[in-house]
Amino acid sequence: MAARSVAIPAPLAVQAPPERFPVWAVDAILKDVVGQYLREQSYEPLRCREVAKDMAEVIKARVKDLMIPRYKIVVVTHVGQLKEQSMQIGSRCLWDPASDTFSSYEFKNASLFALANVYAVYFE
Questions:
Q1: Is the pLDDT confidence value at 11 over 60?
Q2: Contact yes or no for 56/76 (Cβ under 8 A)
Q3: pTM to 2 decimals?
């Protein structure tokens, strides 16, 4: 019985993205969407929960409309009551700093705060 040889493909070279993710454009989208949804909004728990979901969907759609190839987009939004307390929000991601990036926007009015983050991870 003859031994069969199996060809193992050589690893592909890691390619850099053809164009860098436009953080400046995403910053503008975040400011526009969050401002439109929350500028005149007062804090109501059930309403703000729905607004946070809606904002995340709109932000993701507008970022995808930029048509930046091969980036996976993750949008996370937080909306909470602004009332004599503090809150710290943290995130951790495993990524390549040469190609992956993020954008963040913080909003406050008289009764609420919001934080919207967009993570752009290059998919090879």
A1: no
A2: yes
A3: 0.83
